[in-house]
């Protein structure tokens, strides 16, 4: 994806036989100038998402996803993917800060970073976290966040939508590959299967 930023072109006309120059006007026409200085700032904002349809009630999934339960169960079920979690502060509410080490399937080495819970919407079943330091930002991301949403599809059906939202400077397309959702997708599948197996006796489905 190309980014077209706003560029300011300064047109300089040089008088013959004189070193003096004067700015005539702003222009975007390359045929009208002898020298051009262009400045452009462009940041890419992107997101990758994965959706998993489940036959688990949204309210049951949200009990896990809305706080620390998500990373704790993720680590319990898939310790080779989410290799370590450390709660730095908080109880799972907004403002909670955790340090995670994750090895997405297909990656050769794990990534450790610290993230903060910045949004928990118990009405619409949405949770958002934002990386505040660590290796994921050292890769070159200006912003790297995770959005987890449980979409209610009926009494016994829901969709787990897992998204990585990120921002980086134009000219770094290789970062798109580092913003995959594979680890979130395998977590969603494992958690849905776990709840089907262990919560079936309590659910009315």
Keywords:
205 residues, alpha+beta, Alpha-D-Glucose-1,6-Bisphosphate, Chain A, domain 4, seven-stranded antiparallel sheet, three-stranded antiparallel sheet, 4 helices, 10 strands, globular, protein phosphatase inhibitor activity, Bet v I/Major latex protein domain-containing protein, abscisic acid binding, Bet_v_I/MLP
Number of strands: 10
pLDDT < 50 stretches: 1-41
**Main beta sheet:** 7 strands, antiparallel
Q: Provide the residue-averaged pLDDT.
A: 80
SSE order and pairing:
Elements: E1 8-14, E2 21-26, E3 36-39, E4 43-54, H1 58-65, H2 69-77, E5 82-89, E6 97-102, E7 111-121, E8 126-134, H3 135-138, E9 143-152, E10 158-169, H4 182-198
Antiparallel strand pairs: 1-2, 1-3, 4-10, 5-6, 6-7, 7-8, 8-9, 9-10
Q: Mind explaining what this structure looks like?
A:
It is found in: Nucleus. The radius of gyration is 24 Å and the shape is globular. A hairpin with a 5-residue loop joins strand 9 and strand 10. By secondary structure, the protein is α+β, with helices and mostly antiparallel strands. 19% of the residues lie in helices and 41% in strands. The longest helix has 17 residues, at 182-198. The strands form 2 sheets. It has a 7-stranded antiparallel β-sheet. Strands 2-1-3 form a 3-stranded antiparallel β-sheet, with no helix packed on it. The protein has helices at 58-65, 69-77, 135-138, 182-198, and strands at 8-14, 21-26, 36-39, 43-54, 82-89, 97-102, 111-121, 126-134, 143-152, 158-169. It has 2 domains: 8-39, no CATH class; 43-198, Alpha-D-Glucose-1,6-Bisphosphate, Chain A, domain 4, CATH 3.30.530.20.
């Amino acid at each position: 994806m190309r980014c077209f930023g706003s560029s300011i072109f300064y047109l300089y006309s040089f008088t013959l036989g004189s070193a003096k120059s004067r700015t005539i006007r702003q222009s975007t026409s390359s045929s009208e100038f002898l020298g051009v200085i262009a400045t452009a700032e462009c940041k890419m904002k992107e997101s990758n998402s994965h959706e998993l349809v489940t036959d688990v009630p949204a309210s049951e999934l949200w009990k896990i996803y809305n706080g620390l339960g998500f990373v704790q169960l993720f680590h319990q079920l898939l310790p080779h993917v989410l290799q370590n979690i450390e709660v730095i502060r908080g109880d799972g509410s907004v403002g909670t800060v955790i340090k995670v080490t994750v090895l997405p399937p297909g990656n050769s080495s794990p990534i450790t970073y610290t993230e903060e819970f910045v949004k928990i919407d118990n009405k619409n079943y949405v949770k958002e976290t934002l990386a505040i330091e660590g290796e994921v930002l050292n890769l070159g991301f200006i912003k790297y966040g995770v959005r987890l949403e449980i979409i209610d599809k009926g009494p016994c059906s829901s969709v787990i939508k897992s998204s990585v939202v990120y921002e980086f400077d134009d000219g770094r397309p290789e970062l798109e590959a580092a913003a995959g959702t594979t680890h979130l997708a395998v977590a969603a599948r494992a958690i849905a299967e776990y709840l089907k197996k262990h919560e079936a006796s309590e659910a009315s489905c």
